[in-house]
Write a structure and sequence with these properties.
alpha/beta; archaeoglobus fulgidus dsm 4304 fold; Endo_dU; UPF0215 protein I7X12_08675
Amino acid sequence: MKRGVRAIGVAESYRTEHSTLAAAVVRASRVVDGLAFDTCTVGGTDATETVVSLVDRLGREDARYLLLAGIAPAWFNFFDLPTVRERVDRPVLAVAFEDSDGLEPALREAFEGEALDERLAVYRRQPERHPVDLDDDTVYVRAAGLGPDEAAEVVRAFTPEGGRPEPLRVARLAARAADERFVGGDGNLDDGERDGDDGDDGGR
């Protein structure tokens, strides 16, 4: 992949009832050339609309891919990948950093009735996860608009080192910095720490 190819990465940070989402435009060469921020509701159902709004606000038609840190930010506020892919008109890849048996048991513990049914319906229509090896690390990728092999190629192209694609690494740091600035916290922006996007598909 050419070094000038761009992707948008979206990651979150939250401490209160709202999660800060950051979108970072990053080239395959690791150059950052755009940021945008928004919020979604912890435990809500507005994450899909929020990420679509972020991409629209960036206005970066030159960014060929959208990478998301998992599919369930902000306590199971799901990104609906097929819907996002249709709305932003480019391939969408959700990257999780831990293997698991899935989110259904956790959803059944956290929700009931209509709230559970709605989240299960969204979760079950997401693309299948596929492992992607990155040197000594493995990530788990769902892709809408790309096949598994193409998705793996994109993830590897944007991960020059370590186990986190650069657009997601930058977005994660930006989200945490914004959360610290506007919400408050311990001030620690250590890139080595794990955040809410590191569980199974991003769910806590």
